[in-house]
Amino acid sequence: THLFEPMFTCHLATFVQVVIIGLDSAGKSTLLAQLLTGQMVKTSPTVGFNVGNLDVDKKTSLTVWDVGGQENMRPNWKYYLDDCKALVFVVDSTDRARMAEAQKALKKVLSDERLKGVPLMVLANKKDLPNSMTIREVSTQLDLPSYSPDREWEIQACSGLKGLGLQQAFMSVSKMIKKS
Q1: Domains delineated in the chain
Q2: Structure confidence by residue, pLDDT tens digits, 124-151
Q3: Which of the four, 74, 78, 111, 171, has the lowest number of CB atoms within 10 Å?
C-alpha cells in the first residue's frame, strides 16, 4: 500500500516527474507527507514507493516519487529514472556516520545515463535537531562541488517533520527544471 494516492486535478498543469531518493531513515516519506498534506504523518520504512502530485504554481505540478532507501531497495532506484526531470537526494544532516555511504549512493545513481543533465536538489533534512551539520558540511561530505559545471545542483536545509524549507526547495526544483 502507498501512503499517498495520486491526486489528479483537471486544470491544465504539466506533470513533471521528480524522484526523491536517499538512504533509509533520511526522512523522505515524512518530508513528502508534510509537503502534500501540510501535516506531520507517522511513517514506516518505505518498501517500494510513495507518489503524489504537488502543485508548485498554476502551471506546474510535480509528480513526486519517494523511493525506499534501504540497502536492498537501492538497486531498484534505476526503475524510477525514466522521464525524471529532477532528482531530490535527501540526507539526514544529523547522521555523520553515514555520509560516506550517502555520497557513494548519490554518485552511483548520478552515473546513470538517464540522469545526464538532470538537476539535483540535496535536502539536508532534520535541521530542527541539535548537532545537525551545516549545508556547507553536507555539501563537502557529499562532494557536491565536483558535479559542477556538468550538473546544476542546489542544497537546502530543511525539516521534513516541521515543514521548514520544503516549499522553497520545491520552488527551486521547479525553476531548475524550467532552466534545463
Answers
A1: 14-179 (3.40.50.300)
A2: 999 999 999 999 999 999 999 999 888 9
A3: 111
